[in-house]
Amino acid sequence: MPTRTVLTTGANSGLGLATALEVAKAGMRSIGSVRSADKAKAVAAAAEEAGVEVETVLLDVTDAIRCREVIDEIQPWGLVNNAGYGLTAAIEDVDDDEARAMLETMVVAPMRLARLALPGMRTAGSGAIINVSSVMGRITVPFAGWYSGAKHALEALTDSLRVEVAGAGVRVVLVEPGGFRTNIWEDAQRDADRRADSRYASAYRRSLMGLRLTEPVLGSPEQVGRVIVRSLTTRFPRARVMVGVDAVALTAVQQMTPTFLKDRVTRAGLGL
């Protein structure tokens, strides 16, 4: 049986890098997409340290032509759609271009790559598409509206895709991590600094303080990588896999707390 090839997007750091390494450890051909030669070097160094081989390919997932070239060249058996980024901002502070960029990266691009990879998977009679969502694909909080919106859309599309391609032998899995030790602090701080003149500046600072309080329960990216590998390799994968204590807790609180009460507590905490 030939070695299965798995492409992981956004593999230069965090969950993507952890996944690419875990895929290689599982004995599959692991290829990670990065956006620069320097990031490719970082992946190579991490792979060498882990004692595995991870190939890299230059890819901006918002470049439709390059997406087709990469899929045609690699013909992946497995596709892990991980590329994305955080956005901490009130709806009022996000313009059209910023909103479109997020939706292109985190909604349109994963579906494009899946669409391009599916003909090869159908021909092979098997394949796997893992879409990395977030607990924010289930809940929504202030200043994460566009991020949550992108993840909610990804989850809806994934649910549809899973049923559409099951008959072709292609498994589609949605992985929903909570908070993990990645670049979450830097991204949130960057967004707050960019909007220092916003009417929400004080609430952004409170939000950052609350985010830092979650650090003790944050998991390691390797945990998510191992879950993704299990979803790739198990005979009967779960359709949705939530990862992290905080993800389970937040979802439970969201479901059990009346909306009016949740809104009042949130407003009080953020000073809104």
What does this structure look like?
The protein is α/β, with parallel strands linked by helices and 272 residues long. The chain has a single domain (5-266), classed as NAD(P)-binding Rossmann-like Domain (Rossmann fold). It contains ten helices and seven strands. The protein has helices at residues 14-25, 37-50, 64-74, 96-124, 145-165, 184-194, 201-213, 221-233, 245-256, 259-270; strands at 5-8, 29-34, 54-58, 78-81, 127-132, 170-177, 240-243. Strands 3-2-1-4-5-6-7 form a seven-stranded parallel β-sheet, with helices on both faces. Helix 4 links the parallel strand 4 (78-81) and strand 5. Helix 1 packs across helix 8 (221-233), helix 3 packs parallel to helix 4 (96-124) and helix 4 runs parallel beside helix 5. The longest helix is centred in the middle third of the chain and has 29 residues, at 96-124. It starts with a strand and ends with a helix.
